[in-house]
Design goal:
With 211 residues, the chain is an alpha/beta fold. It folds into two domains: 147 residues, Spore Coat Polysaccharide Biosynthesis Protein SpsA, Chain A, CATH 3.90.550.10; 44 residues, no CATH class. The chain is built from nine helices and six strands; from the N terminus they run αβαβαβαββαααβαα.
Length: 211
């Protein structure tokens, strides 16, 4: 699933791709996948995700960070480039996000690296805010400029979230990946195909109840 996501993100025109994972031995496998895919890796703190991301941004000399999490395997370069294009016309933000606007599971967050570094050094983050990278911005939204990015008009909800948090989510994601039209891995194709699978599953459930 990680390799699938990295391949979808790699063609981005406006962003370089890196993997930021933990230094735990259990994540050696993730490191190996990224290296095999030609993606540079940074390894750092486990629970303190803020520390890990700040250190990764410093390692790779980033001024802006686009965060995509590996439980959202259908995010792609098109989304990353689209979001960055929207922000070209509005640079006055601390955090930009697709959350609550895009179909769930096509999530990206964009923030200033120096702003996150300042939060890290401030000592004002609790354990939960250190574990959930951008939580502090949402918790104190009155203090920060949060920009919500609207999707393209054609990017409608598929009728089901596309995150992978459970075995059932993974099974659906695997079906979806296998069902995508040959040569068309676009977001529109993902959402169209996912909607078709949701209808198919609904029909099967209805048929089962009738029987």
């Amino acid at each position: 699933m990680l390799a699938f996501l990295l391949r979808r993100l790699r063609p981005a025109r406006r962003a370089a791709l890196f993997l930021a994972t933990t230094d735990l031995p259990a994540d050696d496998a993730l490191d190996a996948v990224a290296i095999r895919e030609g993606v540079p890796v940074f390894r750092g703190a486990d629970a303190d995700v803020v520390a890990r991301y700040v250190a990764a941004a410093e390692r790779f000399s980033l001024d802006t960070v686009v965060r995509v999490t590996a439980d959202c395997p259908f995010v792609d370069a098109e989304i990353v480039d689209y979001c960055l294009e929207q922000l070209e016309r509005d640079e006055a933000f601390d955090l930009a996000t697709t959350k609550t606007r895009f179909p769930q599971g096509l999530d990206a967050e964009i923030y200033r690296a120096d702003g996150m570094a300042e939060l890290h050094r401030s000592g004002g983050l609790d354990a939960s805010e250190r574990e959930h990278l951008t939580l502090h911005y949402y918790n104190y939204s009155e203090k920060y400029r949060i920009r919500y990015i609207d999707p393209k008009a054609s990017w409608h909800s598929a009728g089901r979230h596309l995150m992978v948090d459970t075995a059932a989510d993974y099974a659906f994601a695997a079906r979806l990946a296998a069902s995508l039209p040959a040569g068309d891995l676009s977001i529109s194709a993902v959402l169209r195909t996912a909607a078709g699978l949701v209808v198919e599953d609904s029909n099967l459930i209805s048929a089962g109840r009738t029987m």
